[in-house]
Amino acid sequence: MSFNVECYRQCMNLEHKNYNQAVPHVMHIDLNSCFATVEQQARPLLRGRPVAVVNRRSEHTMIVTASYEAKARGVGLGMTLKEAKKLCPDLVGVESDPSKYRYVYKQLMRIMSDYSSHVRMKSIDEGVIDFSEACLRGASEQDLVGIGYEIKSRLRNEIGCWMRCNVGIGANRFLAKTAAGLHKPDGLDVINSKNLLTTFEKLELEDLTGIARRNRHRLEAVGIKTPVDFLQADLRTLSQVVFKGVPGVQWHHRLRGWEVDKLDFPIRTAGRQYVLEAYAVPENLVLERLHHLCESVGRKVRGQGLVARGVGVHARSYKQGYWHNKRMMAAPFFSDAAIYSLAKELFKTAPYPLKEIGIHCYGLSAPNDRQLVLFGDELAKISSATRAVDEINQRYGDRTVHSAHTIKTDMVKQKVPFGSTRYF
Amino acid sequence: MNDELFLNERVQMIASFGSGLNPCLPHKFRRANGREIEITEIGLRHPSVQGKRTIHIFDVTSGEADYRLEFDSERLTWHLTQEGDHVF
């Protein structure tokens, strides 16, 4: 269900007070502490021990994922390994291994796709099966619970005995995700119109997906202090006072089990960032690493068959904090050289010394070859050369051919792939 | 960090090839120093594509330490690339 102005007006006139009474048909599957669990699966002697997955073999690196054993002892995401070891001295730090996680992701997607063609992976460790569009449309709640248990069992049999996942079943994506978070690890819960209120009674506002500190403050400012208050809030309060517009209407519907999140967004940006490996890395070395990131982003953009119109760069400086710069160009571009040339230009005003650099391409669109350009021959040459390099790299391995400028930048390797899984 | 050792040691392997979800099962390998290690559990097997070559990575355990073994499906060679998680 998509929202437009007309829909908004209708909703303002007619409040949907009723909950969605339909049989819950959306299943959310979430791997528990995904990267740590996969490491424990791969390395049996780590099972039952507190494990933290980090991106670098250093004590000052941030923890990306902690196992349940580590979480139980107070280890949290974003802590440095050094801090975590004070809380949990026997914590085992393991360097992330993205190829392993990608394999598990693909296996999970394969298992989920056996039950419906309407599978949407939300990230590397979670996905949604929408049975409302499948042949199982008439299936009962019990049928879906059976499928949930079967998926859990297949995950253990086909990937490994340590693999666990949470399954949530709800009338819409929001309630299915909420259900998946109720009993971690290895839970299976259903939220339907009958138990919606009792389920919400056990939750805090920030337990709801999409409600973090700022939204909680907004809600508390009008006296909405619990999920039950939120559920019982009237449409006008949410749309005119709290969220001031369509988001309020969407929340009103979302909480009652009506689908408002079934949306696919086109890829708008592609980017990468890198935390520099040492203090005060000289400018020429920073530019080498930036060039490496540009090559990586260029591959992502071209891999989707797209071209970019703009480049944005950002950096975190030791002295001046966050800095960013961006530029939109009149003509689209796609080659690594074009991306780097623009990024290098933008980086001239960067506040050195830097601790983190990043680049993203935006204004992504499909190439429009029908548009005649004055320097068409030159562009055709660049296009052919870029395509040839991409083909060689695909056939013989990533970075078989790359710029000589990035010959010493192997430390900028791809780490844990958060966010969109569309580049897999 | 953990007590991992990164290696690139060619090893001799006894493995069986059958059918099902895991058609290749490594059982026992002999290291360059002559030490034989019996595999008690295969934790995870995942493929890693290096250009047109596919390397099958086996994370296994002997019960005393965890090992990473890599099978090159083109050259039909086994390498021990990682050792860690020792039980002391």
For the biggest sheet of chain A, the summary is:
5 strands, mixed
Number of domains of chain A: 3
CATH class of the largest domain in chain A: Alpha Beta
Shape of chain B: globular
* CATH architecture group name of the largest domain in chain A: 2-Layer Sandwich
Total beta-strand segments of chain A: 12
Task: Give a quick summary of the entry.
The complex is a heterodimer of chains A (424) and B (88). With 424 residues, chain A is of the alpha+beta class.
What do you see in this structure?
The complex is a heterodimer of chains A (424) and B (88). By secondary structure, chain A is α+β, with helices and mostly antiparallel strands. Chain A has 3 domains: 93 residues, Orthogonal Bundle (DNA polymerase, domain 1); 169 residues, 2-Layer Sandwich (Alpha-Beta Plaits); 138 residues, Dna Ligase, domain 1, CATH 3.30.1490. Chain A is 38% helix and 18% strand. Chain A contains 15 helices and 12 strands. In chain A, the strands form 3 sheets. A 5-stranded mixed beta sheet of chain A has the order 5-6-1-7-8. Chain A has a 4-stranded antiparallel beta sheet with strand order 9-12-10-11, with helices on one face. The two termini of chain A are 28 Å apart. The relative contact order of chain A is 0.11. About 2% of the residues of chain A have low confidence. A 5-stranded antiparallel beta sheet of chain B has the order 1-8-7-6-5, with no helix packed on it. A 3-stranded antiparallel beta sheet of chain B has the order 2-3-4, with no helix packed on it. In chain B, strand 2 and strand 3 form a beta hairpin. Chain B has one domain. The two termini of chain B are 16 Å apart. Chains A and B meet through helix 2, strand 4, helix 5 and helix 15 of A and strand 5 and strand 6 of B.
